[in-house]
Automatic annotation (TrEMBL):
Catalyzed reactions: L-proline + NADP(+) = (S)-1-pyrroline-5-carboxylate + NADPH + 2 H(+); L-proline + NAD(+) = (S)-1-pyrroline-5-carboxylate + NADH + 2 H(+)
Organism: Arthrobacter alpinus
Annotated compartments: Cytoplasm
Keywords: Amino-acid biosynthesis, Cytoplasm, NADP, Oxidoreductase, Proline biosynthesis
Domain Pyrroline-5-carboxylate reductase dimerisation stretches: 167-270
Cellular-component GO terms for this entry: cytoplasm
Coiled coil: none
Family the UniProt entry places it in: Belongs to the pyrroline-5-carboxylate reductase family.
InterPro entries for this protein: 6-PGluconate_DH-like_C_sf, NAD(P)-bd_dom_sf, P5C_Rdtase_cat_N, P5CR-like_CS, P5CR_dimer, Pyrroline-COOH_reductase
Residues binding NADP(+): L8, G9, C10, G11, S12, M13
UniProt protein name: Pyrroline-5-carboxylate reductase
Keyword Hydrolase: no
Length: 278
C-alpha cells in the first residue's frame, strides 16, 4: 500500500496496528502519525521511520496530517472520536476511508460527525495484535464499497485475522474477542492461585499457568485446530482431566462465561447510548 496513511493518535493499540502494517510491506514514508506529546512523536519517528507530528507543538497537526490521505485511522478514545471527526471533516479527501478503532462508537455517530458520503469503517481489534496474533472485526458504513473494505483489510492484515461483520454484531465481538484476552489472563491467574493452594511457590505457579495457557493458545492457532477436539484429546476416560472438566461443568463454568460475555456486550451498548446522548 503506497498511498498516504494517517494515524490520528497512536497508543499501544495504534502502534501494534502500525507495526503490523509496516511489517506487511507498507513503506514508512507513506505513513503519518499525530500524537499529543513531542517526546512520543520523536519515539515513533525513531522506532518506525514514519512522519510523526505532535499537536502540542503544532495545533493543526491533525488537519495537516489528513490532507491528501487515502486512509485515516482514528486512534483516540471513544469520548473524543466524534470531536476528532468534526475537526478533520473539512480537510478529508472525498474518497478517504476513515477507520475507527474506538469501542462502542457507532457508524451513525461517525457518519454524523463527518461530511455526507465519507466512507467509514468501524473496527474491533484486540490486544494480541501486538504479537501478530490479533483478530479484527470490520463493519462498513453506508458509503463503503468493496474497494474501501479492501483498504481497511490491508491496514490490519499484517497483525492478525480480519473478519467482516454487520455492525449489529459488533457488541458481541467486543464481548468475545475484544475482552477475550482478559478472560484468558484471568484463567491463568486462577490457575496460578490454584497451584499456590497446592503448596507450590508463587514463581513456579506463575510459570506453570503462563506457559500452559500460552502453549495451549499456540496449539489452538494451528491450521484446522478445534477447541473441543483438542480438549477431548487430553481428556482420558476416567482420568484426572475428565474429573476436572466434569467439575467445571457441575460448577456452571460455561454459564459463567456466557453471563460475563453478555454483561460485556450490555455495557458496550450502554456506552454507545451514552455517547449518542452527548
Amino acid at each position: 500500500m503506497s498511498k498516504k496513511i494517517v494515524f490520528l493518535g497512536c497508543g499501544s493499540m495504534g502502534e501494534a496496528i502500525l507495526t503490523g502494517l509496516l511489517a506487511a510491506g507498507t513503506a514508512a514514508a507513506s505513513v503519518t502519525v499525530t500524537v499529543r506529546r513531542p517526546e512520543r512523536a520523536q519515539e515513533l519517528a525513531h522506532r518506525h521511520g514514519v512522519t510523526a507530528i505532535a499537536s502540542h507543538e503544532e495545533a493543526d497537526a491533525n488537519t495537516q496530517a489528513v490532507a491528501g490521505a487515502s486512509v485515516v485511522i482514528l486512534g483516540v478514545k471513544p469520548i473524543g472520536t466524534a470531536e476528532m471527526c468534526r475537526e478533520i471533516a473539512p480537510h478529508l479527501e472525498a474518497n478517504a476511508v476513515v477507520i475507527s478503532v474506538a469501542a462502542a462508537v457507532s457508524l451513525g455517530q461517525l457518519e454524523a460527525a463527518l461530511r455526507p458520503g465519507q466512507p467509514v469503517v468501524r473496527s474491533m481489534p484486540n490486544t494480541p495484535l501486538k504479537v501478530g496474533r490479533g483478530v479484527v472485526a470490520l463493519s462498513g458504513g453506508t458509503s463503503v464499497d468493496e474497494f474501501h473494505l479492501a483498504a481497511a483489510h490491508q491496514i490490519f492484515d499484517g497483525s492478525g485475522v480480519v473478519l467482516d461483520i454487520p455492525e449489529s454484531q459488533q457488541d458481541a465481538v467486543a464481548a468475545i474477542s475484544g475482552s477475550g484476552p482478559a478472560y484468558a489472563f484471568y484463567l491463568a491467574e486462577a490457575m496460578a492461585a490454584a497451584a499456590q493452594d497446592f503448596g507450590l511457590s508463587a514463581e513456579i505457579a506463575r510459570v506453570l499457568a503462563r506457559e500452559t495457557v500460552a502453549g495451549a493458545g499456540l496449539m489452538l492457532a494451528e491450521p484446522g485446530a478445534d477447541a473441543a477436539t483438542l480438549r477431548r484429546a487430553v481428556t482420558s476416560p476416567k482420568g484426572t482431566t475428565e474429573q476436572a472438566i466434569a467439575t467445571f461443568d457441575e460448577q456452571g463454568l460455561p454459564g459463567i462465561v456466557l453471563a460475563g460475555a453478555k454483561a460485556a456486550a450490555a455495557r458496550a451498548a450502554q456506552i454507545t447510548a451514552e455517547l449518542e446522548s452527548k
